[in-house]
Here is the input.
Amino acid sequence: MFPLKDNIPTRRFPVLTVGLIVVNVLMFFFFQEASLSLSGASVDQQRVLEYGAIPFEISHPGSECEVSGGNVVCEGMSRFNEPAPTQPPAWLTLLTSMFMHGGLLHLLGNMLFLWIFGNNIEDSMGRFRFIAFYLAGGVVALLAQTLLEPDSTAPTIGASGAVAAVLGGYALLYPRARVKTLVIIIFFITLIELPALLVLGLWFLIQVLYGTAELAQPVGGAGGIAYFAHIGGFIFGLLLIKLIANRPHRDYEIDRRIPVY
Here is the structure.
């Protein structure tokens, strides 16, 4: 399922949501020096190592990591032989990592979700509150990933954790909103409107299932999708949105909303 559009109009132009999308795109093409080709987009891997959030560095303050023999090794590990070159502090990577992406599809997917659901969350609160909510959600998501995989040396990048906080907030504020969704089942493709709670609930369930499977068969430092960052961000959004949102829509599509049982 791919959400394309929701049915809740915004009361003002979502300046910060658009601004976040622009910053993510600029970071991808200029800071990460992404280059496009027929095989996709490739990014500067050294920048990913330096400015991505590495759980080992976060859980072992003062330790720094580098690439050795094709693998990421960190100070304090048995395979590490000499001090690593100075890297940006771990606290800084908690912020920079959420504006970096591993590829073009990664970027486009996150920005699509941010645009569809972020504009209404921004509209539900003051702009300062929104940017604080977004950034805090991203940091909590990274800390959740670190808590579950503290010794991982795979750099974690992407706006997914912060966007997950937005999704969690949206699911609680607007569960009956309708989301136009592209559904693909093998060769069957259709557009259908579904309740936001169903779309976002299924998304969260998938993260939990894959995250649990990853715990059962860990991939170590090889990298992959940060499912626990998604889970942590989503739960953060669920728990905090009612405390932060001071102007949500109370009357969104009252006559036409789909009941939630």
The radius of gyration is 19 Å. The chain is about 50% helix and 15% strand. The longest strand covers residues 178-185. Residues 188 and 196 are 22 Å apart (CA to CA).
